[in-house]
UniProtKB/TrEMBL annotation:
This is Major facilitator superfamily domain containing protein. The keyword Acetylation does not apply. It comes from the Eukaryota. GO terms for cellular component: membrane. InterPro entries: MFS_dom (IPR020846), MFS_spinster-like (IPR044770), MFS_trans_sf (IPR036259). GO terms for molecular function: transmembrane transporter activity. It is a multi-pass membrane protein. PROSITE patterns: MFS. SUPFAM superfamilies: MFS general substrate transporter. It comes from Parasponia andersonii (Sponia andersonii).
Amino acid sequence: NGIGLAIVVPSTQSLVADLTEDNNRRTAFGWLQLSAKLGPIIGRRIAFHLVAQISVVVGILVRLYSKDPRFSDTDGKGCRDQILRWSLVSELKFLIKETKSVVIIPSF
């Protein structure tokens, strides 16, 4: 907390002071202080949970709607048919197996 906050707090206050107009500065500092005090009340882990949920949604959307240009059908031979297509269940089983192999590694 000590060294990190000693670096971050003055720079954020300077940034807020530089980016706001004189008549809006007190509101900006109020929001800055509110977020600094409200964060520990809500819990520091909430940020990680929110990022994880957003990442899952984005991953699903990418899986559903993106196309890999390496496997496009440009030569007319239908190379998409040659790709091994996993079902959703087999992909989830593979991901769970890989996740377990990482989680069981002692970290301390």
